[in-house]
């Protein structure tokens, strides 16, 4: 996060953008620091961070801001650092010297303060005894549910809890256990004794654990084991808001799903994490398009396999990073142009760390362990890099990551469609031709005309649109014999990939 450059933003001292949002707050502070400053510090620290600018007034009727300046600069700066270290103001200091910048605009002084997001395990930051969160362009007091979430998140991982002895193997789905054992035995991932009873097998993989705090030597079902293998009705006895939902739509705009897998539905009365994963993965694989796309060496590209791997990673991440005591459930949306994965629980690492795989903090380690035992999600922090690589290698539209701190959810959208330069305003026929070009290197005008999906015209019309794309440097052409052969523009391919990566990261990390 960088300080704002007001000389680039406005010449007169009045401006409309950037306006206040989830990461920017303007405040008047002529002679003293407003109390609301610390409420915003708390809300930024407890969400995704932000910048507070002192010396800015807002005219709500005009939706406009103006630079009014700070008159008592030294006293206000001193108060910021004094209160920052005052436990009756903030429960923990969050502002460092280099987080504060004093700048000038037309003889007016501006104070900017950057507030970094607090690590998930040290939240919440409170101001005058209350925790705040940032929603839109405002600060609100954290609700009881949000405070509970902060308490749970203060742990490095969600502890495995032993359930009461009234939970038994009868609360688990026998078919899920059978399928899990079958995968282990077929893959030979771990050595298991096929003669073991299901109960002893579950002991061996930690689904049932010994109660070390009593003298009874009894084994108890873990809550993670219940989530992974349990019958739906038994799971909801412990996790009342447990919900897993997959919805498949035939169009991007349709409001009525075509196919659905939903926990508790009459068609899936015993749905748990493991059975949901198996069902949904099969449907995801079936809904990844498999166009014949040739690379520059005329070999078939890895688009289909790459996208399945990226979607599989997102699905597993969604399930093992969910906060199952949350207010909402897991939701997977499958539309023709994208997959969308939403899970309860905010992302525990920065978006940059997620994309680059620099650091992993798994919310449910036992669920992750049960997946790894069958060869799923073998590498920590692999999800982000695989999604990123899929996008770059196949020139797909940039993925989207959205974190909602009000209801504590993370949403990741992975596009199935090919990217077209957003700066170019293409007509529908041009978009069709670009899509054709991404699937068919070395094509002629006649190849496009004969394509079954072409309904934009014959040779003269198609040639006009192709020539337009050549002029825009989106297509290149070469005369071979008596006809022209066309390709996607490959000039400075390496530089374009670097620019795309930078654009993608800027888009996701802004």
Would you give an account of this structure?
The strands form 6 sheets. The chain has a 6-stranded mixed sheet, covered by helices on one side. With 510 residues, it is of the alpha+beta class. The model has no long low-confidence stretch (mean pLDDT 87). It has 17 helices and 20 strands. The chain starts with 5 loop residues before the first helix and ends with a helix.
Write out key terms for the chains shown.
510 residues, alpha+beta
- Major beta-sheet overview: 6 strands, mixed
- CA radius of gyration: 28 Å
- Could you name the ranges where pLDDT drops below 50 across 5 or more consecutive residues? none
Q: What's the helical proportion of residues?
A: 25-40%
- The helix-and-strand class reads alpha+beta
Give the mean pLDDT.
87
| Percentage of residues in DSSP E strands | 15-25%
Principal-axes shape call: flat
The number of distinct helices, counting runs of at least 4 residues, comes to 17
Structure in a nutshell:
It is flat, with a radius of gyration of 28 Å. It has helices at about 5-10, 35-45, 75-85, 145-155, 175-185, 200-205, 225-230, 230-240, 275-285, 305-320, 350-355, 365-370, 385-395, 430-440, 445-450, 460-470, 495-510, and strands spanning about 15, 25, 50-55, 55-60, 65, 100-105, 110-115, 125, 130-135, 140, 210, 220, 245-250, 260, 330-335, 340-345, 400-405, 410-415, 475-480, 485-490.
């Amino acid at each position: 996060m960088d300080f704002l450059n007001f000389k680039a933003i406005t010449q007169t001292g009045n401006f409309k953008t950037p306006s206040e949002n989830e990461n920017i707050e303007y405040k008047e502070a002529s002679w003293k620091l407003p109390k609301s400053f610390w409420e915003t510090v708390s809300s930024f620290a407890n969400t995704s961070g932000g910048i507070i600018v002192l010396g800015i007034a807002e005219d709500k009727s005009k939706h406009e801001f103006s630079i009014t300046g700070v008159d008592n600069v030294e006293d206000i700066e001193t108060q910021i650092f004094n209160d920052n270290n005052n436990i009756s103001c903030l429960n923990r200091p969050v502002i460092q010297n280099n987080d504060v910048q004093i700048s000038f605009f037309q003889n007016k002084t501006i104070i900017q303060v950057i507030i970094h997001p607090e690590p998930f395990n040290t939240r919440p930051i409170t101001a005058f005894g209350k925790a705040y969160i940032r929603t839109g362009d405002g600060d609100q007091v954290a609700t009881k549910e949000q405070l509970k979430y902060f308490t749970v998140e203060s742990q490095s991982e969600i502890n495995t809890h032993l359930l009461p002895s009234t939970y038994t193997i009868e609360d688990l789905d026998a078919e899920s256990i059978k399928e899990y054992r079958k995968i282990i035995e077929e893959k030979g991932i771990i050595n298991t004794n096929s003669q073991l009873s299901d109960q002893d097998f579950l002991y061996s993989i930690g689904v049932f654990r010994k109660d070390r705090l009593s003298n009874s030597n009894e084994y108890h079902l873990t809550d993670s084991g219940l989530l992974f293998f349990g019958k739906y009705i038994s799971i909801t006895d412990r996790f009342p808001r447990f919900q897993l939902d997959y919805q498949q739509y035939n169009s991007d705009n349709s409001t009525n799903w075509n196919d659905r897998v939903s926990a508790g539905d009459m068609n899936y009365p015993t749905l748990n994490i493991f059975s949901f994963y198996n069902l949904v993965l099969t449907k995801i694989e079936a809904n990844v398009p498999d166009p014949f796309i040739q690379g520059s060496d005329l070999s078939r590209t890895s688009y289909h396999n790459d996208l399945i791997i990226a979607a599989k990673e997102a699905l597993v991440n969604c399930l093992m990073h969910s906060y199952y005591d949350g207010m909402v459930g897991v939701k997977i949306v499958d539309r023709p142009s994208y997959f969308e994965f939403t899970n309860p629980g905010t992302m525990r690492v920065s978006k940059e760390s997620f994309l680059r795989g620099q650091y992993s903090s798994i919310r449910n380690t036992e669920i992750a362990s049960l997946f790894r035992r069958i060869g799923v999600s073998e590498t920590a922090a692999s999800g982000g890099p695989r999604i990123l690589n899929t996008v770059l290698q196949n020139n797909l539209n940039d993925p989207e990551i959205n974190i909602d701190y009000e209801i504590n959810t993370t949403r990741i959208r992975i596009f199935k469609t090919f990217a077209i330069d957003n700066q170019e305003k293409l007509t529908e026929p041009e978009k069709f031709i670009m899509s054709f070009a991404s699937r068919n290197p070395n094509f002629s005008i006649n190849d496009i005309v004969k394509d079954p999906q072409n309904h934009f015209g014959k040779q003269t019309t198609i040639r006009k649109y192709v020539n337009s794309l050549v002029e825009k440097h989106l297509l290149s052409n070469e005369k071979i014999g008596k006809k022209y052969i066309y390709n996607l523009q490959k000039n400075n391919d390496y530089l374009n990939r670097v620019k795309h990566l930078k654009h993608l990261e800027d888009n996701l990390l802004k």
